[in-house]
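Quick log. Single chain, no ligands specified.
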Amino acid sequence: MTIDLTRRGTLGLFGATAAWGLLQPGLAHQRAFAQASDVWHHGSSLFGDLKYGPDFAHFDYVNPDAPKGGRVRLYAPGAFDSLNPFTFKGRPATIVALAFDSLTSASLDEPGAAYGLIAEAIKFRADFSEVTYRLRKEARFHDGQPISPADVIFSMEALKKASPFYAAYYRNVTRGEQTGENEVTFFFDQKGNRELPNITGQLMVLPKHWWEGKDAAGRPRDVTATTLEPLLGSGAYKVERVNVGRSVTLKRVGDYWAKDLPVNRGTNNFDEITQEYFLDPSVAFEAFKADQYDWRLENSARNWATGYNFPAINRGDVVKEEFRFENPDAMQAFAFNTRRPKFADPRVRLAFNYAFDFDWANKTLFYGLYKRLDSFFANSELASSGLPEGKELALLEPLRDQIPAEVFTTAYTNPVNATTTDQRNNLRTAMKLLNEAGWKIENGALKNAAGEVMTVEFLLVQPDFERIVLPYTQVLKRLGINASVRTVDTSQYTARRDGFDFDVITHAWPQSLSPGNEQRGFWGSAAADEPGSENVVGIKNPAVDTLIDKIIYAESREDLVAACRALDRVLLWNHYVVPQWYSPTDRTARWNRFSHPATMPKYATGFPTIWWYDSEKAAKIRGQG
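-> predicted structure:
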């Protein structure tokens, strides 16, 4: 699956590693407590009783006796110019977030479940208007200072200030307050939002005393700014070495305060974790074959089908393995910038879908390894299908005058280009849609009534994506559209994407099994003009806002599923994007010097968190080398 690898903490490096989902709450986010309210709990779950009781020793999917030691080298695209992953500014080295602990830790074999990490216990009001965390007295930052309620309160305020994502995600958190010797309570501006008491548990806790101090040069620290100073954290790892723009190495903290907690038993097994950066994907693949890093999430169908025929594969030194998980697949798509008038009409956007020949691309470029996306919650029970009925229809009916009529009359499908006849018919349909939207061919160019030519630039950051987009632009030119491709480096791409300075980009929106508040950041009107937000399309649609609230305030799993399906239909039929494709499996390759537990989690590979260095396997590779 080709993805936007520059997204901070969404996909890319951490795409198949939900053990690190707290780097981006939307990936691993949980929902409300299902337990009795106003009673202290050791964890939380939306779907009923927790799998693990108060005295559990470790998660079932770990090896509690996994050996500690060795190192692992991971790949990251582009470069970095900052060690601060909490601000949207700059290009942060995402791996440094492993230096921080959160209030709770997600389980990888239970949807919607989390257990205490910094917080030893959690309680909340029956109306979901507040939540209280009791912190562990032994919790420490790496400098030995205890983690206090003041640090937790500071972290909430700082993250909301530093990042538009967190500002949207925690928008309804009005304040934090110390309500006991080692307790902190978050208050909300609304009642009934079942998600809020739990997503606050994902908060990564920052040291207030460190951020309010000065760096070695005497300059005040600023959580909203980029920095190359290693941050003070509290997690299992801390920054050991930095080669600016090239690599970051983390070292396991020997006296890590939480190493013996049940949520950490059998995890964090490597002494060192290095993130190696490569500007060019082709160079990165060659580096993997040359044993310059250890693990690869293969996003190229061409590489997967034809590239793994080098000697190390034949010797068994490199292992290919596919993993299938029970998570929704991200909506990856050509995303229109609807802030620009030429994309305001949904008929124009739909015409671009009719012009996109996925069937040719899948056969010619992807070796038939992909499926076309037809949902924003693909491959899950949250995806819409057929026509709406029951609770889903009841949600959509009051919005009938605000949403496309097709939502009620037609099951959504993408155009199919199985034959040359299909291709011709789809181009005719595309031209018809453009004409209806006021665009006509004049002297070979598609123009509107004001005489403006339809000019479209596809902004890319991955050079290998050009082989997909360039043929697409040739088809668009047959419609009179002046289509072009511009591939830029990571820094330019990030600046233009965050500033909404583009026509069309490829973007991906990851989903969890329990969507919630992050949907406001994806599609909500309030996020449309917030620089750096995930609402890159610029959606300002009252019906979408209403359905997002239905998701957030869902009182049961059945209500949640119905609301997600309803939102899915409205997003699809507004044609905000041209859906691309997904792979039903995560394709991975690794140098065979690691082992994993016999029982793997349902929702992630857990690499490298629950894996370990296998010295016997490593010795065999050295012997053959």
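Confidence is low (pLDDT under 50) at residues 1-34.
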